[in-house]
């Protein structure tokens, strides 16, 4: 089903506004550890905790970023003591990334922070939306992300 041109433009504008709000939230903040980190760093850390042993190449593909951009972020995270790497047995050139104890502590603090802050946002949404509408919204956003990635990779 194709949307009306004006509605399609309005929908695109809403997504753009949401994206701009999210991008503005990437200022470093203290998640409760006494040190400031960006949301990209803490979400990459979560991904590494959930998927230990990933390489730069794998992270680059899965995060849709260039290998130099991922390498730069991982280097900063390593310098901050959040992650470390080991080599793959039999292949000293392949670096496998894992969270450090400090990274695991930050992840725990970040999870609690998100529960509180995002929980407040959900409470605001519940003033005008049902739980079912909120669940549907996140389902659609997840599928939207998949569709955009599929379109992006088919264009290359």
The total count of strands amounts to 4
- Strand sequence of the main sheet, in spatial order? 1-2
Broad structural category: alpha+beta
- Helical run tally: 6
Could you name the key traits of this structure?
156 residues; alpha+beta; 67% helix; globular
What does this structure look like?
- The chain has 156 residues and is of the alpha+beta class.
- The chain has helices at 5-24, 39-50, 56-63, 67-79, 101-126, 131-155, and strands spanning 29-30, 36-37, 83-88, 91-99.
- The strands form 2 sheets. Strands 1-2 form a two-stranded antiparallel ribbon. A two-stranded antiparallel sheet has the order 3-4.
- β3 and β4 (91-99) form a beta hairpin.
- α3 packs across α4.
- The longest helix has 26 residues, at 101-126.
- The two termini are 26 Å apart.
Short description:
Helix content is about 65%, strand content about 10%.
Task: Walk me through the topology.
Elements lengths: L4 H20 L4 E2 L5 E2 L1 H12 L5 H8 L3 H13 L3 E6 L2 E9 L1 H26 L4 H25 L1
Antiparallel strand pairs: 1-2, 3-4
Helix pairs in contact: 2-5, 3-4
